[in-house]
Amino acid sequence: MYREKFDLGGRVAVVTGGAQGIGNAIATALAEHGAKVVIADMDVNTGAAAAAALGGEFAALNVRDRAMVRTVAEDISARHGHVDILVNNAGIARNSPSVDTPAEEWLEVIDVNLNGVWWCSQAFGRGMVARGKGAIVNIGSMSGIVANKPQAQTHYNASKAAVHMLTKSLAAEWAPHGVRVNAIAPGYIGTELTKRGLANAEWKKQWLEMTPFGRVGDPSDVAALALFLASDAAAYMSGSVVSVDGGYTSW
Length: 251
Ligand SMILES: NC(=O)c1ccc[n+]([C@@H]2O[C@H](COP(=O)([O-])OP(=O)(O)OC[C@H]3O[C@@H](n4cnc5c(N)ncnc54)[C@H](O)[C@@H]3O)[C@@H](O)[C@H]2O)c1
Hints:
Blueprint: H1 2-5, E1 12-16, H2 21-32, E2 36-41, H3 44-54, E3 57-60, H4 66-80, E4 85-88, H5 103-131, E5 134-139, H6 154-174, E6 179-186, H7 192-198, H8 201-209, H9 219-230, E7 241-244
Parallel strand pairs: 1-2, 1-4, 2-3, 4-5, 5-6, 6-7
The structure holds nicotinamide-adenine-dinucleotide (NAD).
Nicotinamide-adenine-dinucleotide (NAD) binds at residues 16-17, 19-23, 41-43, 61-64, 89-93, 112, 116, 139, 141, 186, 188-189, 191-194.
């Protein structure tokens, strides 16, 4: 019974930003459990190679471009008949003291991390609502719950808090339509996104001291939770923001 709940055979899953890092681990986990996975990423070379390695498909997508999001969603839905799972994972991080943050940097972070999640949720959610079935997993962050130390990143933190609230709002609105929407709030995970921070001795020291586990997490730690939330094992869960952060937000 419990094996069946994690079986994604026959399901179509779209993972934005699935070319590398956390998104790639999630795409791998979903594919291993039988889903037909479409990696949707703006990095065409890495994304196409990653999709081929999974036996999945690749779609070139910039989540900031709402017309492109709509076209890609319609195209994937038309080719497969439906989309069962959407993982809104594409995201970027920038660091700058708030008084000096350039307007373009603020707009870029909000555009990718928040607007991108919105465009994709709306474009793919439309078909899910019409069909009465679907699961959306948004990648938020512990930065949407607590402010990071020592690096300044108000735009990033605000964008992730907004993703958490977007998650709850859609969860409530779409529950009667059979569509579940949950979010994951990862702590520090070893990927390209954290590479620069981990190369900074002072940042790394503070990051690890503030993490009860004393180490960064692996993308697979996030992927295991995404697999659960995307599957029927989480059938009674919606509107949840679940932390995978080595205990960071517990003290
Ligand atoms: N790594 C961490 O510590 C950490 C912690 C909390 C949350 N997150 C979140 O997890 C998600 C994945 O992060 P990661 O660490 O794997 O980063 P990463 O930089 O390794 O990968 C991000 C992927 O997103 C793609 N991408 C970026 N902008 C895009 C756009 N506009 N359209 C389409 N694709 C785009 C990139 O090409 C890349 O493949 C992000 O939302 C990030 O904010 C990461």
